[in-house]
Design brief:
Elements: H1 5-9, E1 22-26, E2 34-37, H2 38-47, E3 51-56, E4 63-67, H3 69-86, E5 92-97, H4 103-118, E6 122-128, H5 137-150, E7 155-157, E8 162-164, E9 167-174
Parallel strand pairs: 1-4, 5-6
Antiparallel strand pairs: 1-2, 3-4, 6-9, 7-9, 8-9
Length: 178
C-alpha cells in the first residue's frame, strides 16, 4: 500500500471514530446548529447520507460538520494549495567584495544589488578576507557601509557589518513599495 504524504496531513475523525458524548454541529445542511449528543448527530448524518466529520477536535465540545468526507478532503487540499501559492518565498542574492575592491568593480556590483532589491530579493553583501588581508578589516567595513548608503533609496540595512571568520557580512532588505 502506497503512503501519500498529503493524506497524512489531512486526517479528520469521521462517524464512529469520534469518541465523545456530545458535539457542536455547524454547517449549511443543519436546521439548528448547536450541541447534540453524538448518537443524534450520527443519526442526522446517516439520514442525509453524509458523514459526520470532526473539524475542530480541541474545542469544547468538539466541532463537527455533516458533509461528504471526500468532498471535504478535496476542499481542504485545495485551501492548502492556495495558501502555499500565496506564501512569499524570500530570495537571498549574494554579492562578494574583496577588501581592495576598486571603484569600477564597486559600481558594477552596486548596479547588480540595486536590480536584485528592485526585484524584491534580499541582498547579502560580504567582504572576503584572504590570508593577511584580514588586516584591512576597516576598509571592508567602510566598503560595506558605502554600499548600504548607496542603496538607501531601494533597500534598508538589516544589520551593521558583522565579522564572521574571514567574512564581513551585511544584509539589505528591499523597501516596501507604496
Amino acid at each position: 500500500m502506497e503512503n501519500n504524504k498529503d493524506d497524512d496531513k489531512l486526517f479528520f475523525r469521521i462517524n464512529h471514530q469520534i469518541r465523545v458524548r456530545e458535539v457542536r454541529l455547524v454547517g449549511d445542511n443543519i436546521e439548528t446548529p448547536g450541541v447534540y449528543p453524538i448518537q443524534q448527530a450520527l443519526k442526522m448524518a446517516d439520514e442525509l447520507e453524509l458523514d459526520l466529520v470532526e473539524i475542530s477536535p480541541k474545542a469544547e465540545p468538539p466541532v463537527c460538520r455533516i458533509i461528504d468526507y471526500q468532498k471535504f478532503l478535496y476542499q481542504q487540499k485545495k485551501k492548502q494549495k492556495e495558501i502555499k501559492a500565496k506564501s512569499v518565498k524570500v530570495v537571498v542574492k549574494e554579492i562578494r567584495f574583496g577588501p581592495q575592491t576598486d571603484e569600477h568593480d564597486f559600481q558594477f556590483k552596486l548596479r547588480h544589488a540595486e536590480k536584485f532589491l528592485e526585484e524584491g530579493a534580499k541582498v547579502k553583501a560580504y567582504v572576503f578576507f584572504k590570508g593577511r588581508s584580514i588586516l584591512f578589516k576597516e576598509q571592508g567595513e567602510i566598503l560595506l557601509l558605502k554600499l548600504a548608503n548607496e542603496l538607501e533609496e531601494v533597500g534598508k540595512l538589516d544589520q551593521m557589518p558583522k565579522l564572521e571568520g574571514k567574512r564581513m557580512t551585511i544584509f539589505i532588505s528591499p523597501k516596501k513599495k507604496k
